[in-house]
Specification:
binds uridine-5'-diphosphate, 12 helices, alpha/beta
């Protein structure tokens, strides 16, 4: 593959970039470094198969440079810019992982317009370029799609249950839904090979609590002796999936002809309430922190609606790729605790490749 990862300097994108390079593929990262962070991919810059373009998916020039590998490499000596061929032939990427997004519920609530522009206008530009160059495309969608559907086994064809469009919380779900529809329509009407992956609460090294994500926040709070901030009564539940379990599936799906024009849930089925998660983090970190319950209206805004439950049916992705989430929540928490303490070498899940983490520890 000669792959382009939009949003490749983010938490998920940087793990995907690392994985694809390890598998021998070429990787171009397009990222505006708004929520992504160059440090996440800095260790890849020496690889001749890695390129970096700093720019937004809303910028047609940056998108074109990223697709044609003529990256400007504006952030220092980043990657290897490929000179534009003089014979008129344009080299271009053949596979796109479209991950660029306004991440997190907090951002959707505080800056809904930003998210809407990126999800809708940005995705339009990326899909147009993908069509121009005949690329395969994986669109990263989200469990947010399902909204308040509380099924204990949400499957891909289940209904979306959303609140009012005037509640900005739902703008993320709306934006992702339009991305999905675009991807599906490009497949159905134009034959572009697109696949949609709905990610359920991915967690792992390099994820920041800065944009609201609960697990890195709890781990940081527990290690630094601060109270763990549980929103609402903490009875809402989630299933946390270890990033390293999920990444190979993204690469598999985009190359699988049976996946095109379809959507796949991807996540773990180990359900925990947020209150139980806080208790677990405190116990596994050996922390003296307490739990502080914060009303939603204080944490976000008045009228905020949370998703009470999210448990994916993963039959479809398992049948096509053999995906099984291997890492337990206890293992994930232990690893994040040791990384947060800066002693990442001391604890890794059994049989894992420690080199994957070395870059994280250095940055
Ligand atoms: N949450 C919390 N305390 C925090 C951050 C988040 O209790 O400091 C809650 C949040 O309200 C939600 C759950 O944890 O119910 C998961 O939040 P996250 O933003 O990680 O993911 P998502 O809402 O997308 O599932």
């Amino acid at each position: 593959m000669d792959a382009l990862i939009t949003g490749g300097a983010g938490f998920i994108g940087s793990h995907l970039a690392e994985y694809l390079l390890q598998q021998g593929h070429g990787v171009t990262v397009l990222d505006d470094l708004s929520t992504g962070c160059y440090d996440n991919v800095a260790h890849l810059a020496g690889n001749p198969r890695f390129r970096f373009e700093q720019g937004s998916i809303l910028d047609t020039g940056a998108v074109e440079r990223a697709f044609t590998g003529t990256c400007s490499g504006e952030t220092g000596q980043v990657g290897t810019p490929t000179p534009t061929p003089t014979d008129g032939h344009v080299n271009h990427v053949d596979t796109v992982f479209h991950l660029a997004a306004a991440v997190g519920v907090e951002l959707a609530v505080s800056h809904p317009m930003e998210g809407i522009m990126v999800h809708i206008m940005g995705t339009k530009l990326v899909m147009e370029a993908a069509q121009r160059y005949g690329c395969r495309v994986m669109v990263a969608s989200s469990s947010e799609i399902y909204g308040k559907n509380t099924s204990d086994n949400i499957s891909e064809d289940d209904d979306r249950v959303l609140g009012s469009p005037l509640k900005s919380r739902w703008s993320y779900s709306e934006g992702k839904a339009i991305e999905e529809t675009m991807a599906y329509t490009y497949w159905r009407e134009m034959g572009l090979r697109t696949v949609i992956v709905r990610l359920f609460n991915m967690v792992g090294p390099r994820q920041h609590g800065r944009y609201g994500m609960v697990l890195p926040r709890f781990v940081h709070q527990a290690i630094t002796g601060q109270p763990l901030t549980v929103y609402g009564d903490g009875h809402q539940s989630r299933c946390f999936c270890y990033i390293d379990d999920a990444i190979p599936v993204l690469a598999d799906l985009v190359q699988h002809s049976d996946a095109y024009g379809k959507a796949f849930n991807l996540g773990s089925r180990e359900e925990t309430t947020i209150e139980a998660l806080a208790q677990k983090v405190i116990a596994l970190a050996g922390s003296k922190s307490t739990i502080h319950y914060i009303p939603y209206g204080e944490a976000y805004k008045d009228g905020f609606e949370d998703m009470p439950r999210r448990v994916p049916d993963i039959t479809k992705v398992r049948q096509l790729t053999g995906f099984v989430p291997r890492t337990t929540l206890d293992e994930i928490i232990r690893m994040l605790v040791s990384l947060e303490r800066g002693v990442g070498e001391s604890w890794f899940p059994p049989g894992r490749n420690e080199t994957l983490y070395s870059a994280t520890l250095e940055t």
